[in-house]
Each structure stands twice: as C-alpha cells, then as structure tokens.
Write a structure and sequence with these properties.
heterodimer; A: Rossmann fold; B: 12 helices; globular; binds adenosine-5'-triphosphate; binds magnesium ion
Chain lengths: 256, 482
C-alpha cells in the first residue's frame, strides 16, 4: 500500500531525510523509533504533503498512485491520515463541526452522499466509545484549551471517524497518562483490520506492548538504519541509542 | 448555525461579486451637480412640506461651510460633488397601489438579489422595504404590522402620512450639522425607511430594508429612522448591493434610532456594496453615520455589522447612553480584501448612571487592504458606575495588508470601569495544513477559520441571515490565500 524508495527531503540547504526505504502492506503495523531530531516527524510531514519540506529525490507510491504528486487534501481523501505530534488549535470552530466537514469531504471524494445530521451523530456516538472521549470536549472549539492528552485523544478520535487506509501516528503516546495510553492503544487496536495499516512513531517501548507492531524501524540521521520485529524495540529500551551509534561508527570506519 | 458549514464550503468555490448586474429600466434623473435648486427639486419631487425644505436648505448652507474630514485612515482622490446625480428614480409605469403593481423588471431585480416582494413568498417573519437608487419601490407586510400600531414604510411616505412623528424625531439623534456627510445627506436625502413601534409592542417580525444602487453616476443618500417607544422591541436588518462599475459611487446614509424606557432595538447590517475589482478600480464609497439614543432608563440598543463590501468604509455606529442602566452594544466583523479600505468602529457615550457598553470588533484583512478599528468610549462626569468592555481582534491573511486599532478612552468619573483588549493574529500555515490533512482544501479551510474567528459576532445576527453572512465572509476572501 505504501512504497517509499530512496526518499530524500529537506529544508532549504539542509537534507533531513537521506534516502528512506520502507514498504508497508495492508494489515501491517510498523513502528518507527529514533533519537530526537532524527527525522521522524519530517518523514510524517513529507508523506502528508507539508509544503515546508522539499522533496529532492526518490519516490513514494500510495495505493498504486504517485503520492508526491498529490495535494495534501487529496492524500487525506485517498486515505492517508496523520495524527499530529502537536495538533493545532482553531478558535471558534467546534470540533464536531470540523470533523463533520472532514468526513463529508472524504465521502465526496469517494462519490458518496454527505452524512446527514442524524447519521453523523450516530457514527460519532459509536466512535466516541472507542477512545472514550467526552461529548463536552467535542462541542468545544477545535483543540482550544484542550490538555495535551485531550488533544492526542482527539486525534485518534478523528482517525476513528475518518477510517483511513494508512494512519501515521506521530508520538501520540507522549503526554498521555497510563490509563489514557491504554485507552488510546485500545482504540487503535479496534481500528486495525486486514485492509488498513499503521505507521507509529514513538519513543517508548511501552506503547508497543499495547499495540503490537509487525515491524520496528530505527531512524537515525535521516535513514532507517535497522529494521526488525518488536524485539528490536526491547533491545533499544534496554541499551539506549548508543549501541546503534557505536555500531554505525564502527561500520563507517570499516568502510573507510 | 455552524451545522450549515458544508453548504457554505460548497458555495465558497463560486467566486466573484454576484450582485454586479445592472437592471435596464428607464429612470427619472435630476441633472448632475448640487445646488439649492437641486435641493428644492428633490423636495418638490417628494411634495414635501415647507418646514422640511427649510430644514434641508439649512443643512445645505451649513455643508457649504464645512470641510471633508481627513482624519480617517483611508486614502482616495478628491470627490467632485458637482459630478454626482443626486436624484434618480426608476420610472414605474403606474404609481403602484399594491405590491402586485410593481414594475416586473424591478420585481425581477429584487428576486435576483434573493428578496421577494411578494408577501406569500417571503421568508416568514421578515418584512421588507426595498429601496432602489433614490426611492423606495415596495414595502411588504405593512398592513399586518399596522394592526399592532407599528408603522413601517418608506421615509417619503412617512413624511406625508406621519409628519408629526418625522418632525419630532428627524435629526434629533444625528443633528444635520454633525459632520460633513450628515449635512450633505440632510440636504439631499431622497428616501429610506421609517419604523415606529408603539409603547409595549414587541414587533412580531424582523423588519428589513434592502438598498440597491442601480443607476450610474448617482449617489445614494438615504435616511433611516427607528423609534421604539417605552417597553417595545424591534429587530431590524439592512442589506445592500450595487452593480460593478469602473467609477466610484458615493453612498452617504444616516441612521437614527431612538429608544424609550425599557425599549430594545437590535440593528443588524450585512453590508455588501460593490468593493471594486482586484486592481482597486471602482467600488462604493460608504460614508455612513449611524447613531442610537438610549433615551429611557433600562433601554438597550445593539448594533451588529458584517462589513464585506465597499471600496472605502467609513462608519461608526454609536450609542448615546442617556437613560440610567441603559445598554449599548457593538458587534462588528469587517473584512477587507484587494485594495479595500475600512475605517470603522463605534462610539459609546456614557451619560447615565450604571450604563453598560460592550464592543466586540473583528477585523479581517487580506490582499493589500487596510482595516482600522476606531472606537471612542466616553464616561461623563455624572455617569456613576458606568462599565465598558472592548475586545478588538485582527486577523491577517498574507503580509501586504494592514490592521490598525485606534482606541480612544475618556473617563471623567472615577467609578467608571473601562476595559480594552486587543489581539492581532495571522492565519497560520499550520492551521491550514491541519485542515488540508483532514481533506479540507485551502479555500474551505480559510472559510472555516475566519468564520470561527468571527463567530462571536455572527452569533448576534438573526438566524435567517447568519448563514448568508457566513457565505459572504468566505466569498469576499476568495483567492486571498495560497
Ligand atoms: N521547519 C524546519 N526548519 C528547520 N529545521 C527543521 C524544520 N523541521 C525540522 N527541522 C530539523 O530537522 C531535523 C529532524 O526533525 P524532526 O522533527 O523530523 O525530528 P524527530 O525525529 O521528529 O524528533 P523528535 O523525536 O524530537 O520529535 C531536526 O534537526 C529539526 O531541527
Ligand atoms: Mg517528532
């Protein structure tokens, strides 16, 4: 479903992604870990189509289409979802109304009729249970004054409403208390299916105890330097990133 | 009302000023230019009593001694007042005695604007006075309102039918000599609406006046007068549009509101005069004086305005809080795009004790436009325990536009409490990208964000017009981002 080949991207003169290779098939859950500043959010942003970043090389195919040629809204409508590391606030726009607009944009793209108020409310009620989000939160302005955890929960709620093919979660676990973490993970698990996939950016092995990944990748200085199964995450938790760094340095020296 | 957003999002994609057409109808025009003879000509056309002619002439003579104000933060070439036609009335085949006899061409014009002059087709609960160029062509639901003693008719008719009321109130809130444009208006005003709500009556429907400029080279100078006697209530709405023309046209109106004890008047404006093209050519100069007098104790006057049109807007709907415990409110959204300029705000003059006022101003600027808020809050020496709260927020789209705030505060009574808050923000790339990532395109995202920004004001509008006004906001900012 997603095929990233030698993706290079950056900002102005600075290259941040330096040749990413990654394939995701339907039904899979991939986790990406890596030290601060290694390029995890940049990868997520580039996939979602943020124009701040310039793609300088490589290709990305999504659902058989050239992702890099699509506008950000078309990527979303085609089923790519990004749960933001830092969700923005939009004052005066109710969360419910925002989500309704989004849901109907996606439906329009698929040639479906917009949901009427009743059908939308029904869907909302059902999905609210998944992440145990409160109605009162949804009637407030989008993310305005939400606590860190509430914002994250709202991202996952939107994901549940939009039913994307590929959901990229950028550090959705950061800032969640232990109960919320379990609830959010539970929500994600219920959305898992054989036709959709997840790319989960996290710093902590703990999330992966709840959401079991099929693959774990380590991103370091703009490259995926190790891929493995969930055991890799455990190893990382134990040893920290230093072992990767040392390994890479030795390899570099050997090359020279 | 925000549930309606989907429709709006769809409508947003249809751009351009959609009211720019011209109605082909013969008109009865005064010769160009301004003189005592023209003032007499207009007064004669309306068959006015002698006192009103004298009143006009006095205003005209005073105007001659005045200078056009230069303090607003707007910029335009000098207006040649001799190059304007001061009276233009569409020629109707018959003098219409009933709504059915209105010239079909005029009826179609208003229908194109979404205003039906047939009572049965009209939105339930709204009565309309339709003014085209210098005259009122129709007023709906007059008879029904009259049953409750409410007078709702054109100014010209009111002068004939209710001269005692007009004589008593005209110029009582906005004196002819108030400023350059009120003096001009008083000399040459040609029509407008008059509304009288008797004591204790709650007006059962929205009253509204729709102003249309059609003829070329003319100015529109109308007066609206609303009198709400003790304990009465009325909600009033004003809308306006004009054809697209390359030359600028002047609109200099006066609105006066009088509120007796415990009376409440809500006045809403959706101003959509032709704003000029993308290069700044053409458009209406909207130089308007609006003022309300809270004469009685516990009275309340509330102004709500959504200003999207006009190449230049210069207006400060104000309230004189004379009665004790009276309340004045001003809610405003002013949008400027391309080369539009707006200098708008309010004056709250606290004279009575325990008077309260609230100002919420939302300025949205895009393109190369300039948007200024100018507000005066005055607490007089005798106004004990007066309170004011002002909130002025500006939103910028792009970096070639300007937003300015000019608050003037004069407090002469130590018990007065005056609070002023102001913010300036930009529509963030982050906000737009967030919307994009949820499948909402940039144009719709901007519409969503600005409607959210203006929500507090939009919520003040009567339901029937809120949705229309939302669309208008979106349309007037079309193409300003991205
Ligand atoms: N808009 C930007 N302007 C300049 N530099 C940027 C920008 N965005 C990202 N960078 C830089 O690119 C690098 C990668 O950033 P990115 O946010 O992708 O890291 P990350 O792996 O998500 O880190 P974290 O774990 O802290 O979230 C960092 O050095 C960052 O400073
Ligand atoms: Mg990050």
């Amino acid at each position: 479903m997603l095929n990233i080949q030698d993706l290079r991207a950056g900002i102005e003169e600075m290259e941040i992604l330096r040749g990413i290779i990654l394939q995701i098939r339907p039904g899979e859950v991939h986790a990406i870990m890596g030290p601060n500043g290694s390029g995890k959010s940049t990868l997520a942003s580039v996939l979602a189509g943020r124009s701040d970043f310039e793609v300088t090389g490589g290709s990305v195919e999504f659902m058989g289409k050239n992702l890099l040629e699509m506008s950000p809204e078309d990527r979303a409508r085609e089923g790519l979802f990004l749960a933001f590391q830092y969700p923005v606030e939009i004052p005066g726009v109710s969360t419910t109304n925002f989500i309704k607009t989004a849901v109907n944009e996606v439906r329009k793209h698929r040639g479906e009729e917009p949901l009427d108020a009743v059908a939308f409310l029904k869907l909302m009620k059902e999905r609210m249970k998944l992440v145990q989000i409160d109605q009162s939160l949804l009637s407030r302005s989008l993310n305005e004054g939400f606590s860190g955890g509430e914002k994250k929960r709202n991202e996952i709620f939107q994901m549940a409403m939009l039913e994307p093919k590929l959901a990229i979660l950028d550090e959705t676990d950061s800032g969640l208390d232990i109960d919320a973490l379990r609830i959010v993970a539970n929500g994600v698990n219920q959305c898992r299916g054989k036709d959709n996939a997840f790319l989960i950016v996290t710093h902590y092995q703990r999330l992966l105890e709840y959401i079991e990944p099929d693959y774990v990748h380590i991103l370091y200085k703009g490259r995926i330097v190790r891929s493995g199964t969930k055991e890799l995450a455990l190893e990382l938790e134990e040893k920290g990133y230093d072992f990767i760094k040392t390994e890479l340095e030795t390899a570099d020296q050997a090359q020279q | 009302m925000y549930e309606e957003n989907d429709d709006i999002l769809q409508q947003v994609t249809t751009s351009e000023y959609k009211y720019g057409f011209v109605t082909q109808i013969e008109s009865d025009d005064a010769p160009k230019g301004l003189s005592e003879d023209i003032v007499r000509f207009i007064s004669g056309k309306k068959n006015e009593p002698e006192w009103l002619l004298e009143w006009r002439l006095k205003a005209y003579r005073h105007w001659l001694t005045m200078e056009e104000p230069t303090w607003p933060n707007v910029d335009y070439p000098p207006i040649n007042y001799q190059d304007i036609i001061y009276y233009s009335a569409p020629k109707q085949k018959l003098a219409p005695n009933s709504l059915d006899e209105i010239d079909p061409e005029l009826r179609r014009t208003f229908e194109k604007l979404g205003i039906s002059l047939q009572e049965q087709k009209r939105l339930t609960g709204v009565a309309v006075d339709a003014v085209i160029d210098s005259v009122s062509v129709a007023t709906t639901f007059k008879d029904e309102l009259a049953k409750q003693g409410i007078i709702f008719c054109s100014m010209s008719e009111a002068v004939q039918e209710h001269p005692e009321l007009i004589r008593k109130y005209i110029g009582s809130v906005v004196p002819t000599t108030d400023n350059y444009f009120t003096a001009l208006n008083s000399a040459v005003f040609s029509d407008g609406s008059f509304c009288y709500i008797p004591a204790g009556v709650r007006c059962p429907m929205e009253l509204s006046t729709y102003f249309r400029i059609n003829a070329a080279n003319t100015g529109q100078f109308e007066r609206t007068l609303i009198v709400a006697e003790a304990g009465s209530y009325v909600s009033y709405l004003e809308g306006c549009t004009a054809p697209m023309r390359d030359e600028n046209q002047l609109h200099a109106a006066v609105v006066e509101i009088f509120a007796g004890e415990k009376a409440e008047v809500k006045y809403s404006t959706v101003q959509n005069w032709y704003p000029g093209d993308k290069e700044g050519k053409g458009g209406i100069y909207n130089f308007v004086t609006k003022r309300g007098l809270c004469q009685g104790d516990h009275s309340k006057i509330s102004w709500t305005q959504v200003e999207t049109g006009s190449s230049i807007t210069w207006k400060y709907p104000s309230v004189i809080l004379k009665g004790d415990h009276s309340i004045g409110e001003f809610y405003s959204v002013a949008v400027t795009n391309n080369f539009q300029q707006a200098d708008t705000g309010t004056k709250m003059i606290h004279l009575g004790s325990h008077t309260r006022s609230r100002i919420v101003s939302k300025g949205i600027s895009a393109g190369r436009s300039n948007n200024s808020y100018r507000g005066l809050v005055q607490v007089a020496r005798k106004a004990d325990h007066a309170r004011n709260f002002s909130q002025c927020d500006s939103l910028l789209l792009g970096d070639k536009c300007g937003a300015h705030t000019f608050p003037y505060i004069e407090v002469k009574n130590p018990t007065g409490i005056v609070e002023h808050e102001a913010t300036t923000s930009k529509i963030g790339e982050d906000q737009i990208f967030y919307c994009n990532q949820r499948g909402v395109d940039t144009e719709s995202a901007v519409a969503l964000i600005i409607n959210g920004f203006a929500k507090e004001v939009m919520n003040q509008l009567p339901m029937e017009f809120a949705v229309e006004a939302q669309k208008l906001l979106a349309i007037s900012l079309e193409g300003s981002v991205g």
